């Protein structure tokens, strides 16, 4: 079977990484990733003060080859060996998911990055978050959250290697719930930043998640107009809302690819990233 999600993208491609010694089990690979990356907000959990420079430099590493280069510069240990915090890549949830997806694809498991909202960080709130989704032999999909495998995340009431769909809502589920009045859009976004929440935020997450499903694994703060920008829903027409509803409902690979080809949704060659910095994306 020619599985689209077995193919590396310009973002997930590990380059010349020798994967012969890596495990093939998705859970073991998730643990491997958890032991070589430290989340920007996890310094206190790991009793490590993250240098300010690394918070900025590592955050803009868009490609797995960049993550691996930084890891090599900070230590010569193999990927299979857990690192001390100072030797790790300083990343976000997206980086955990992207490296995990890269290694899954490289070792024969179809996988993709998924954007959405986690209910397990702040009670009563849906925090913007990114995880791994991989395809099981029977064709179904399972969610893994490599970031929260550390023992300090002890409030979890589920297995991070099999995240329930009601604990992590992929963006399509979040969009449908908000559109149907089953969830409050004001509880979706960043809990710590009141201005970064609401239906416009869910819309942006929906478009970024589609891009990831289509092989453009964006950074969490990437944006482009009209549907992945800052404009409010009031500026969107009936056709735009219908298109976003179709994105939320898309299940098959064929539907995803068709929607990714729509110019209203597809990432342009030049996008805006952190602090509205212009970034040119690679051609696929």
Textual characterization of the structure:
This protein is of the alpha/beta class. The chain has one domain (4-145, 160-280). Helices cover 30% and strands 14% of the residues. The chain has eight helices and nine strands. The protein has helices spanning 26-34, 52-59, 64-74, 93-106, 171-179, 199-213, 238-249, 253-260, and strands at 37-39, 89-91, 111-118, 126-135, 141-144, 168-170, 188-189, 270-273, 277-280. The strands form three sheets. Strands 3, 4, 5, 6 and 7 form a five-stranded mixed sheet that branches. Strands 1-2 form a two-stranded parallel sheet. The model has no long low-confidence stretch (mean pLDDT 93). InterPro entries: Papain-like_cys_pep_sf, Transglutaminase-like. It comes from Streptomyces regalis. This is Transglutaminase-like domain-containing protein.
**Class from secondary-structure proportions:** alpha/beta
Number of extended strands: 9
* First-to-last CA distance: 21 Å
Number of domains: 1
What is the CA-atom radius of gyration, in angstroms? 18 Å
Helix content: 25-40%
Main pleated-sheet profile: 5 strands, mixed
What best-fitting shape do the alpha-carbon axes yield? Answer: globular
**Beta strand %:** 5-15%
Number of helices: 8
User: Unreliable runs, pLDDT <50, ≥5 residues?
Assistant: none
H and E order: HEHHEHEEEEHEHHHEE
Mean pLDDT value: 93
Organism: Streptomyces regalis
InterPro entries: Papain-like_cys_pep_sf, Transglutaminase-like
Protein name: Transglutaminase-like domain-containing protein
């Amino acid at each position: 079977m020619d599985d689209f999600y077995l193919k590396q993208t310009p973002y997930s491609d590990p380059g010349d990484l020798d994967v012969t010694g890596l495990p093939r089990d998705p859970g073991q690979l998730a643990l491997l990733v958890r032991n070589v990356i430290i989340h920007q907000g996890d310094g206190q959990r790991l009793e490590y003060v993250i240098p300010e420079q690394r918070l900025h430099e590592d955050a803009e590493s868009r490609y797995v080859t960049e993550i691996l280069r930084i890891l090599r510069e900070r230590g010569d240990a193999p990927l299979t060996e857990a690192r001390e915090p100072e030797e790790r890549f300083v990343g976000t949830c997206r980086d955990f998911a992207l490296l995990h997806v890269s290694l899954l694809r490289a070792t024969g498991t179809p996988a993709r990055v998924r954007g959405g909202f986690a209910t397990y960080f702040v009670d009563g709130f849906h925090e913007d978050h990114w995880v791994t989704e991989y395809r099981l032999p029977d064709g179904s999909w399972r969610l893994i959250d490599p970031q929260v495998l550390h023992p300090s995340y002890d409030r979890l009431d589920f297995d991070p290697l099999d995240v329930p769909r009601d604990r992590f809502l992929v963006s399509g589920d979040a969009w449908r719930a908000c559109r149907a009045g089953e969830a409050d859009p004001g509880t979706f976004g960043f809990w710590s930043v009141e201005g970064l929440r609401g239906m416009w935020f869910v819309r942006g997450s929906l478009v970024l998640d589609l891009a990831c499903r289509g092989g453009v694994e964006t950074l969490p703060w990437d944006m482009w107009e009209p549907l992945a920008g800052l404009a409010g829903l009031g500026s969107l027409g009936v056709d735009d809302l219908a298109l976003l509803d179709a994105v939320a409902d898309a299940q098959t690979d064929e539907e995803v690819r068709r929607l990714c080809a729509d110019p209203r949704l597809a990432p342009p060659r030049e996008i805006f990233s952190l602090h509205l910095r212009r970034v040119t994306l690679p051609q696929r």
